[in-house]
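Shape matters. Shown next:

___
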Amino acid sequence: MFSLFKKTTETENKSKNEIKKAVDTEAQKKAENDAKKKAEADAKKKAEAKKKAEAEALKKAELEKANKEITNMTDFIDEMTGVKVVESKNQFLISSSLDLNDSVIASGDSDNVQDVTKKIGFVVLGYGNFASTNLFDSIMPYAKAGHHVVFLLDNKKSTDESFDKKLDKINQFKNVVIVRAQDNVFDFKKILLGVKLASCVYTVFVSLKDKLNPRSFITIVNSVITENASKKCFIPNDIDLYELKKYWGFSSLSGSLFNSRALLELNDSLIEQGNYWSLEKIIKNCSAEEVFSYDNEFVFNRYPLNKITSLEIAGLGKEIICGLKKSEDTDNLLKKLWYSVQDLYANYELSKIQRFFLFAMVSYVMYLCERNSFDTETWKEKFNKIFDFGVPLKAKETQRMLNVFLPILFQKKDNDLFIVENVGMSDIKNSKFFELAQQNFKIDYQLKRSNFDYYDFNNMIIKMHSKSSKLTIASGSLNRNMLSEGDRHLTLWHGLGWMKKTVVKPDKFTVGDIVCSSEYCAPRYKEHFFASNALPLGSVQTDKLFDDTFRKECNRVIRETHGISEDAKIIFFAPTFRIGKKHHYYDFGMDINALAEELAKNNVYLITKKHHVFESLMRDKGIDASGVYTSDNKHFIVDEHFDFNQLICACDAFATDYSSGMYYAFAIDVPVFLYAIDVDEYVHGPNGLEIEYPKSVPVPFVGEPSIQKFMQAYKDSLNSVNTAEYKAYKKDNVGACDGHVGERLVDFIRNNYV
C-alpha cells in the first residue's frame, strides 16, 4: 500500500515538475518574444525617427537651396538695376503747412464727421511714371474747398515745367502735402503714410493721369458713403472684383475709396507684401460684406499707365519669384503673371523700355516654372505669343544679362545626366535605357519644342539644365547655344539605319558623340553628323520592341481602342516631313475614303500618325493641311492616342515614304513597303538621301497615287521578310539592335562619362 502511495506521489511530483518546466519554458519563450518584439519596435521606431530626420534634413536642404536661388536672382536684379529694398533714415521728404496733429481719423467720433472736407481726403499717386498734369485742373477746386490732398511723388524733380508750375500753384494751400519718396520704399509704406497725412475718415486714391468731375465727384462719393456706412472699401465698377489679378500695377487703386482707420489697421499684414496687386491685397483683408462697387461713369475717368520703367519690371519679377516659392496657390500666381506680362509687353511696345530687364524677369520666372513642374509647355507657348524671343535674346544687353545670370544659378554640377527631347519625340523617356539610367544615375529630364519660333528661348532653358549636369543626352542635334563650353554631349539619334542626308550644320548644331544602330552605320554617322565619335551600341529606342509582353499589350490596346478585330490586319503608315515646303506638310495624293473602301474589302486597317513637326505647326498656326483624315468607314485612321513604338508593335506591315522609322520595322522583322509619290522632288531637292532610293531598299515600292498598286505592295511585302536581301539589309542598318542596348549604354556612360 505504501509502495503504491509512494509511486503515485512520485508520479504526481514528476507531473508537477514537467508542468512547471513547461510553464517556465513558455514564460521564457514569451519573455524572449516580448524582448524580440520590443527590439523590433525600438528598431522600427529608430528607423522611422531616422527616416523622419533625413526627410526633414532633405526638406531643409531643399528650402535652403530654394532660398539661395531666390537670393541669387534678387541679388542679380539688384545688381543690374540698382533696386534694393532697404531701410534708410531719409526715405521721405515731406513738404506741408498742414497741422499734422489735427488728425480726424485719430478722434473717437470720426465716423460722425459731417464736414465733407474733413470726411474725405485725397492721396494722389504721382511718382515716376504717373507724371502728368491731367489731374491738377479737376482736383484744384477740392483743394481750394479745404479737402486734404497728399501727393506721393518720387524724389526726382520733374523735367516738365508745366507740371512743376501746377504743383507749386496747388501747394499754396495749407491743406496740401507733398511727399517725395525714394525708389526703395515699398508701395504700401507710401500708401499708409499718405492715408495718415490725409488724416480724413475716408481716403480716395487717384493718379495724376486720372480726371475727376470737379462739380459732382465728392457729392456723389459722399452720398455713396452715407448710404453704405458699414462698408470699408468702395471700388469703381469698371474694376472686375472677380478678376483682381488683372490689376497688378499701383494705378489699380485709382478711384478706390477706403475707410482710413480700417486701412491703417492692416499695416502689419500689408507693409512687407511687395509693390504689386495692391488692390487685391487690400480687398483680401476685408469681408465681401465690407466691399461696395460704386458707379463711377460720370464722376471719374481712369487713364492707365503708358510707361513702365525697368525698375518696376525688376520689382515685379522679384515679387513673382519670391511668391512662386512661398505660395500654395501657384495657378493663381501664374495667372497674375500672365496678365502682368501682357501689360508689360503693351508698354514695352509703347515706351521701348529696356527689354533685357523684361526678359530677365520673364525668363527666370519660366525657369522657376520648369524647376517646380508647373505647366511649362503652356507657358512657353503663351510667352512666345507675346514676345518674339528670337531677336531680343540675341541682343547684347541680353547676352550680358545671361553671362551674369547663369554662373549665379549653376555653381556646381548637380545631376549626372540631363536628357532632353523634342515634344512629340519622347522615345528616350519611354525606353528601357531611361528606366536603367534612373536606377544608376541622377537624372534631369526636359522637353523642348521642335519648331523654330522660340528656338532662342529654348536655347537658354536647355543651357540652364545642361550646365547643371555632367553629361547632356539628346535624341536629336542641339543648337550649339544650348551648351556651355566644356559641356559633354551624347546623341542617341532618333533615326536608325543609313538613309537620309543630315541637316546638322557644324557651325550651328552639334551631336557630340553619337550612338548608332550598327557597325556599318558608325563611320558614316561620324562623318556626316560631324560627330566626335560614333558608337555602334544600337538604338535604345528599339529595346522595348523586343519585349513580347509589351508587344502583345500594344496590339490588344490599339485594336480595342480603334475597334479592330483580331483577325484583321493593320498597316502602320508613317510619312516624314519635307524641308523646303512652305509648311512641311505631307500630300497623301489618294482619295482616302476610296482607299478605305478597298482596305475594308481586304479586312485591313491603316493607321497613320502625323509627324511631330506637323503637330507643332498645327498648334502654332492653327492649320491642318497634312492631307490625312479618318475615313468615313474608319478603316483609314489618323491616330492621336499612341506613340510610334506602340503602333510599330501592333502592325502587321509598315509603310512609309522616306522615314527612317522603317528600320524599327526591320529590327523586329515587320514587313515593309514604300509609298512615295514625289521621289524626284525629294531626292534632288533640299531633303536628299544617302542611298539609291528606292532601288537599294529590298521592299515593294509604289511611286504613284494608285489604290490598286498600294494594296498590291502591301500584299507583296508580307512575303519579303524571309528573303536574303531583307535579312542582309537588316544586318547592315540595325545589326546592333537586339533588345539589350540599354544595358550596354548604361555601362558605357558609367565607364566613360560619369
